[in-house]
Amino acid sequence: MNSVLRQAITLFMLLTLITGVAYPLLVTGIAQVAFPAQAHGSVLASGGKPLGSSLIGQPFDDPKYFWGRPSATSPQAYNGGASTGSNLGPTNPALIDAMRQRIAALRAADPDNVAPVPVDLVTASGSGLDPEISPAAARFQIARVARARRVDAAWVRALVDRATSRRTFGLLGESRVNVLELNLMLDGRALDGRWR
Question: Comparing C-alpha atoms, which of 77, 173, 65 is closest to residue 127?
């Protein structure tokens, strides 16, 4: 009995060291060397001051900024500690009401815009942390941002084009615009080591 218990404890300790210490240290070390920015949270900084992560959306509601995809996390939007979707089905009245409210807010912020509202501006993502919007969602907001900043819409459009990331390897995913990066570009903030 004692030998079986000793073997079980030895095996437990060995597997704990392998899977709980050695493997995480190995993966962390590889990540630090191969993907240092991602391993440190993909933090965007200006002048050495962190401004946010390019991987987690942030709330913007000022008309002079581009707005991101809605977030269903609680207790506040884009809560990284509570990543979740709303879990509301497409026929749920609460989801339909929330979408109507978001459309009304977009129309109120830009009453002259009669274009169809892109779906990613009124529906939350599955994670609630989506930092990117579609190029169509960014173009939908150009006139409002240009008017609020009193700048030429062509200049804002050029920034949107500059901030648009194409499909990965030309075939994976869709074209997308990182909202935080675009808003920092609007403010003229040079990002440490990665100005587009």
Answer: 77
Residue 87 to residue 27: CA distance in whole angstroms: 33
Residue type, 16: T
- C-alpha 128/C-alpha 137 separation (Å) is 17
pLDDT at 171: 83
Cβ contact 155:146 at 8 Å: yes
Prediction pTM value:
0.78
- 94-99, long-range: CB < 8 A, 24+ apart: 98/70, 99/123
CA 65 to chain centre: 15
- DSSP-assigned letter for residue 20: I
Mean pLDDT per 10-residue interval, the chain, length 196 residues: 89 95 93 83 78 84 92 81 80 90 93 93 85 94 94 93 89 90 83 50
So what's the pLDDT on residue 40?
A: 76
> CA Rg, the chain, in Å?
22
The 3-state secondary structure of 31-89, one letter per residue: HHHHCHHHHCCCEEEECCEEEEECCCCCCCCCCCCCCCCCCCCCCCCCCHHHCCCCCCC
**CB of 32 within 8 A of CB of 39?**
yes
| CB-CB contact of 181 with 189 (8 Å) | no
